[in-house]
## 1
Amino acid sequence: MKFKFFILLFFLSTSVFSQSVRLDGVTFLALDRQGNSYVVCKERVNKYNGNLELQASYTSSFGKIHTVDVSDPFKPTLFCKDFVRLMLLDNKLAILGNPIFLPDVHILKPSLAARASENGVWLVDSYRRQLVYLDFTLNTSRIASDLSVYEGVPNYAVERNGRVYVNFSDDNIAMFDKFGALLRIIPIKTSGWFEVQDDQLFFLSDKKLMCQNILDLGAPPVEIAQDVELCAVAGKQVLTYTRGVANKSLLP
């Protein structure tokens, strides 16, 4: 795929900066806490530094890359849903070891993957409607939670601060502990993607980037940006994609 790039930098008197890259066919975005951006275009992921200069690329041999989890920036985790493969890369996007064929560890139809903090990954097996923990070290899996009791289809998941968050298409986000026990249900209407930072939940709704304090659900969410197709948030940085342009800026 041929990419067209341009860099636009400008600084405002408030010291807020914005940078942009023009790309075609973007399907997923990620940001790590070191300031690197990851842009997925179907079966390829590109890594950019803090100045949005291309640093590395990786092309999957197993079709479209569904998600990239960079919770650990030294070991990005790639999930290729169609070919039920999970891959670990190094910080230069070189593959580490062999791709994991998930049915080999008894995960028959994985639909979501989220990196776990304890050298593993959380997976949603849509065939059995289960939240499963896979240990990379032992290459074994265990059932953490039965999701059949929840309405809606799981469509996004992350782990943050020892909590696992799974979004369901019925406008609810379920929060589990590290053993898979349900802690609470967060009634948020989101397009799928979301991010959790401390007590702040960032999410997309009707192409708007919103922020909700999950400790005060009675307060209305705050609108941050409009006309956003894809998004990623890490620290004070936000990466958005709209009509062929990926834009990186600081949160207000």
## 2
Amino acid sequence: MPVPKLWNPDMGVPEACDSVDQLIKWASDLDVKYSETDGYFSRLWFRGHSDLSFELIPRVYRREFRDRAETFWLDQRFYKLSDTIRSEPDAELERKCLNLERTIVGQFIQAGGYLLEKENEIEAYFLARHFGAPTRLFDWSTNPLVALFMAVFDDDDSKSSVDGAVFAIDPTAHLPEREQPFRGILTPDHPYAREAIRVVMAWVDSENSPHILPIRPNTQPGRLERQASCFTMHSYRSKETVNQTLRLCLIPAKEKAKIRTVLSKLSINQFTVYNTLDRLSRELNKAWRI
């Protein structure tokens, strides 16, 4: 199945950052074209991962999810779509992936909705992703230190011997200039963002052209706020897309422990990033060496 990911064929050899200072310099030197219409929010986003080989694709397009979706069902509305859509490569599998995502997110909200501070289905969708449910949202951050923490930390230490990575991107650079209504970072209530999400949450079909949309959720206390979270929404039927601003900084495995120590001194740790009491307990146990 074609995977709607952002990539840069001209990214070249990644620069290596051995320290927090080097990462900050690398991030500060990135060339991003700002606009007078940008306002308050930055259009420079970051993503960290403890494994350099990580692909920048949402969970609903990863192999294990696609394999499970193979045996899922097709809804009757699929057969009413245009012949052009139904003849796209792996159109049936993509629709099954969408229906599986719809079902899992629906069960997440059915069972855990009372624990979520949400005002509507749009906010619920972002929270579902942030707590681990498989969606077509892909996490980014406007804070390079949060991304660096993600690149040097993993829960079970299984990636300690593997090089990590910090990615940077202007998430608007790939959007077509001719479609000005959404050539920018969208709010969750923007018509294009809302419709792309309602395809999942309300089981409707969109009349808009499918794109990979940059969306910044409304700030709420908790994990979303602590991680300065932003998302790309890889809309149903969107395609692999070139973004020439995508950059990669390699984080050497042998430097991960040192970088974690420095980040901890700067109050970038499990508790300040994840904002849960179990993460606070882990940091206390580590600090007291017990």
## 3
Amino acid sequence: MSLAGFDSARLAAVRPAMQRFVDSGDIAGIVTMTWRHGEIAQADAQGFRDADARTPMTRDTLFRIASMTKPVTSVAALMLVEHGRIALESPVAQWLPELANLRVLSDPEGPLAQTEAARRPITLLDLLTHRAGFAYHFTTTGELSAAYENIFNGFDATVDPSRWLEHVAALPLIFQPGERWHYGIATDVLGVLVQRIAGMPLGEFFRTRIFEPLGMTDTAFCVSADQAARLSTSYAIGADGTRHVEDHPSSSRWLKRSAFRAAEADSYRLPTTISFSRACCSDAGDGKATSA
């Protein structure tokens, strides 16, 4: 393993610094990697994959990466731009007609019934930059928050993308398209857009166009039976400040593939640290990380 130009003494400080988080109980375990110019300078695994079972963390442990899937979905969309299938300024209603006649809340905190017409269509750039006017239930308040909670957590795992998008289109936007940045389900909508333009499921596009070319064989929307033993236990901190198991490998919801999840465009991919680094290095246009 090369130091890739890093100072050896400062790299050596990474392990004890991370170990303090494990010893304090803030995290069960951690995998770190330092990469530069296509070379891995430091890679380490500390703590436990499962704290109760005292299963050691390893560098090939699988993690749920939540919204770090958003960059992958965005890369998929930009690949379609690169191939001339869509432009950044293209109104997405050309492929997503459900979004052709959207309404916008007159007051971001007001009732759902008080709306005005969208002044312009949503573009691909709006979706990529979270300026489309969408929200999450935890980034808005009032009636819109409750409606988004149902959209995102109520039935997204049991319907197809078109039905999910119909429900999204029935909600008013929180702001006019392009008016301001607001964190929301824009990347979920972007995932449906990629599926429609590419003519294939989003996971299939990811696998064939991004992950297989990068050698990311561990990255997927679910965990296979032979990978389950490497899946980390996911913990959450309760209101009382104590750590509890949020998702365990033996009963993980990621062991089974749902027919459709709106969240798949922006959450819960399951790569190893080094596997995910390959996507980051590729996104940066700075080469591909090698194994170490």
## 4
Amino acid sequence: MDIRQLAIFVSIANRGTFTAAGKALYISQPTVSAQMAALEKELGAALFERQSRGIALTPAGRILKRFAEDILMLKDQAIAAVGQYKHDISGSVRVVASTVPADYILPGLVSRFLQAYPGVFVGLSRADSATVWDAVQNYEAELGVAGAMRDDPLVESFPIGRDELVLIAPPTGEYSRWEDPVPLEVVLQAPMLCREPGSGTQEAFEDALRALGVNPDSISARAQLGSVEAIKSAVAQGGGVGVVSDLAVQREAAAHTIRVLRIEGLDLVRSFHLITHGKRVLSPSAQAFRDFAVSSFSH
């Protein structure tokens, strides 16, 4: 039994399938299967029950999960404790961020951090807000950055930036005659290009509607697209309107390829938060990145 096997086992237990665990840990499904077969053989007990909708833990598996989580946490604590005696911080840190901070906020921060800590490698990956939270809660990433928040007392959060959601529309046809801000009833009747479930942008827009007593189902949704770039491209070609971060459309606004508008009566300013698991002791490189990010955005 080794640390890698335990990390794979905990990821399977949290995500419910070998395939999902492999994707989260960036290893192949055959490797996941082989590692778990070796672990079950060594322990002499079945750890998983195959079900139609995924995998459940056996009684032996539930017992191992408790110990495995403690072992992984102790490993992190040991690395952090020893790291305090290093003169120079080195190593790697994995950061999972939702689309807007990953594309428009964190690249500049990462660049400055790398200059301050030349011995650290930063792995920045992009996912929707729900996946970011899952990665931190399931011990798969030390640090996450997302706009959407969850009520989890075990997760610590630190504000590191903000943006405003705006309405984007084609610069031609009826849209060219819209006044800014656009009345909400006009927006609700327009063909809306939406983000996927789990998107922090979509969630923030729908929360703002609910705050005014408006059911999000009243949106005239015509398509669901999986990225900001896809929505911008479809809008520019006349496919409808969309709601995106103002950080994502500065170039298009300057070039007048897309109209950038506000929606009357909606408060669409939001904050982005860096999140960490409260029970996890961060590695020295992750601690340095967290402190650097919080300090950079507090000024």
